[in-house]
Amino acid sequence: MAKLGIKTRALLKSPWVFHVATGSCNNCDIEILDVLTPRFDVERFGILLAPSIRHADVLLITGAGSRKSMERVMRLYEMAPKPCLVVCIGECAMSRGIFMPSYNMPKPIDHYLPVDAYIPGCPPKPEAIIAGIVKLIEKKKGGK
Amino acid sequence: MYAIYLIVYGIILTGVLGVIASWIDRKVTARIHYRVGPPFLQPVIDIIKLMGKETVVPEGASKTTFLLAPIMGYASISVASAILWMNQLEVTQGFLGDIIVVIYLLTIPSISLMLGGFASGNPLARVGASREMKLMLSYELPFIFAILVPIIKSNYSLRLGQILASQAGGNVFALSFSGAIALIVSIICIQAKMGIVPFDIAEAETEIMGGVIIEYSGTPLAIFRLMKHMMLFTLPFFLIILYLGGFNFQGIGILYSILKYVLMLVIIVVIKNTNPRVRIDHAMRFFWGPATIASIVAIILSILGI
Amino acid sequence: MTREELVSDLKERFKSDIIDFYDRSPTRIYIEIKPESLVKVASYIFKDLKARFNIASALDAKTHIEILYHFTLEYLRVLVSLRVKLNRDRPKIDSLAPVFKGANWIEREMNELLGIDFTGHPNLKRLLLPESWPEGVYPLRADYKEWDKNAVRDRGV
Hints:
Strand content of chain B: under 5%
Helix content of chain B: over 70%
Oligomer: heterotrimer
Order of helices and strands of chain C: HEEHEEEEHE
Largest sheet of chain B: none
CATH class of chain C: Alpha Beta
Number of strands of chain C: 7
Low-confidence stretches of chain C: none
Structural class of chain C: alpha/beta
Mean pLDDT of chain C: 89
Largest sheet of chain C: 5 strands, mixed
Distance between the termini of chain C: 62 Å
Radius of gyration of chain B: 19 Å
CATH superfamily of chain C: NADH:ubiquinone oxidoreductase Nqo5 subunit
Number of helices of chain C: 3
Number of strands of chain B: 0
Largest interface: A-B, 22 and 30 residues
Number of domains of chain C: 1
Shape of chain B: globular
Structural class of chain B: mainly alpha
Helix content of chain C: 10-25%
């Protein structure tokens, strides 16, 4: 197992999250808001809510990607300074869920962006979101 | 000789103490929210991570000003801190008028934030920078009036060393009426200077998406954050020299010094956690109203000798 | 005025325009009118009876396209719906946007999703669909076919 450089280790110990909603029903957005409250306390992992896309390390994407919003999300991904991880939260972001035949959602989000982790659920509980982020950190530490 | 002071005391020691102060701030805030806070090295890891990301300069920004603004702020806070340590360690090492130099240097970090905001080319950054400008116009006035109180009480001298020497022996300025009022006004003014709630109007996170620092990323952002951590150490240190007799490094004095600094830090953090953010016109009305009147009252009392 | 007075007043005043009057629920009234008299009836209900324009909904029944305009009268707890049935090949009706502003955006949405033409609308531009959507393709019609060659329509399992 290769030893990770100091850049990757520092990135995994202090990931600042940025929340992007692309045409969702807002349930996953409410659950993300719940994760950032004092009850679940993600600041012990170093996770803070980044106010601007230029400070972001992890993009949390919710909602099935509609045509109009995915143009903007592609621009947001270019604006984020690399290295940047992408996490899809909820069924709609993973595979469009029940909106697969819809006229406004042609492709799932991982046909537009390189996604690093998927967190299933409709909406996923805050404990599930934390478990997903921890699994992502463990996967990146494993050297992949 | 001065270079050693600058590098060792200004940059390295203030940097380390500033990072520890910022961790204390985050941990005490977490405990007030009834949760566990970040681990001890978290601010250091934040800065290392930011230095590892790429620096993005937006297309509409003026590149030189954008990249030089953080360095300007960092340099001025280092020099100001070096002057304060110089006076603290050996009282005769100051020069005439060094308190004016320190006041001047301590305004430059806010100006560098403003410059960075205006150079970003982003309308939200421009809003944040103009708010910072208005805030600076309002809190500098009672701050300078409150600094006049120890100058008057130590026989109208403009040397920091003289101010420290007149407080030797335990009769610090904060025990008199005028000193106490001036100390309270100063604590509120440095809360605005450091950009901490209730006065973090320039960098309002939920309103204008980060305000002044919206377009900063990578190493310039790391330098800005380090500058803010160092301000969290330097400004209470300045107030301790003016009102509470400075640090004392002999015997039991070390314990009292640490206690003085921790007390000021805890007051700042408790005010931060129990107040919402104020609007810019409320802040201006407060600083030009009650705060200025209180500091003028303190000046009059100190001239009368109380 | 009470609910019975409202019903009798509407039936009396627009006797020649009403095709059907459906009144079997205490809070809903459905009135089907001829498309030519839409502006007259809607202005009366909005201006003189002081109703509030709620929303307009449209659907594609296989033989025709129909639009429902919903008005609420809060002081009577009644929701009055005006139904117009349009020709499916060339659906065209007068716009209500000059009468009250609330109809402006909903008519733009009905135009781009179902292809209904509103004459007299000040600004019949695209509202919700992206710029790259082709002209003349209306997604909510019953005979809408997938035109996008790059769309992924299998679940991948």
